[in-house]
């Protein structure tokens, strides 16, 4: 009968306002004679909940302002100014956390682990950009995402890539998304956060490998427009799906297009679709129609082949989980294949838990990776087959259009379009 009351007392102590300060004074860090110094933390300190909701409010206002500047104001300068603000606030001030990109993993873990309760602010950071994308296109990518802003700021001499390179390399983002979901669902790792290429710049600290990765992407970003956004960002994959059915989208001209091709030259992301000629849109010959039918038949084959391939490497993938790594280490020590021990194996022995139970848990996790490998591989096969089918379908266009999925709504084409500039000049004359 005492247990419920003890829980109430402990819970009351946890909610006591002065608890944390009192604990800090009563239990100061130990003073080691060896000159040991406590290491500096490399992650942002926890913030009060009210400040987390303030971040959500700033995100909401920034998304609404981005939608207005992109679809109504149509001003590249204003979009860039908002981009700089987002880089300073969400990047350097908030140190890249909370991040909608990394929130993909929190949502996944909440779906597959009933013991994990996702914070409301994290869920809002994940959902708000998706809702705005569904209605207004990729306004989050345009001016609110700090990862996109830091890349856009360094783009000085853009080089256009062949379209086939854009499609092939862009598959990496789908693989990254699938792997991130698999590792988060199994409770193994949050690889999006671990390998965030720009978090080291935002926090002015981090491992050498991540600094090299981020520096390399920024160096590539001098010439290739937003390489992380286009070819690696897992959240960008989801935004692509939502933007395809968005109610409003970026239109290059406010009126009829004169086909001057200046917008095509201005876009560093290859997101401008050219008009189709009558010769291009003629019904495909039997050979091309047969190719489409073959690709459609091969779609389930791609999925099965991908699932089988990834499921075969479930053991190496499962090593991302700490339980599997510990079981592997314990097996090596128990069988005498290694002579030393590790801190993890020593800590496990102190718990008194049977090693057979550890092996059982590791086998169960590996079975999860086997099934997850089938799903991940099937997803990759579906993407490859779907892209092949999409390229085989011919669509009719009368003028230059921004691709709904690939357009990042940066507004560069606005300042190049002569009709847009003429409209802006007329507005200025009326204002004067």
**Average of pLDDT:** 85
The total of helices stands at 23
Rg from Cα: 26 Å
List how many beta strands DSSP finds: 2
Helix/strand class: mainly alpha
Task: Characterize the biggest β-sheet.
Answer: 2 strands, antiparallel
Instruction: Indicate the low-confidence ranges by residue numbers.
Output: 1-27
Supply the number of structural domains: 2
Q: What percent strand?
A: under 5%
- Which descriptor suits the 3D outline? globular
Euclidean distance between termini CA atoms: 81 Å
Approximate helicity band: 55-70%
The side-by-side strand order for the widest beta sheet comes to 1-2
What does this structure look like?
This protein has 432 residues and is mostly helical. It folds into 2 domains: 51-254, no CATH class; 286-392, no CATH class. It has 23 helices and 2 strands. Helix 10 (171-185) packs antiparallel against helix 21 (355-392). Mean pLDDT is 85; it is low at 1-27.
Topology summary:
Elements: H1 2-15, H2 19-26, H3 49-73, H4 76-93, H5 103-112, H6 120-136, H7 139-143, H8 146-154, H9 163-169, H10 171-185, H11 191-194, H12 199-203, H13 208-221, H14 227-231, H15 234-243, H16 262-266, E1 272-273, H17 286-311, H18 314-318, H19 322-334, H20 343-351, H21 355-392, E2 401-402, H22 412-416, H23 418-431
Features:
single chain, 432 residues, mainly alpha, two-stranded antiparallel sheet
Briefly, what is this?
The chain is mainly alpha-helical.
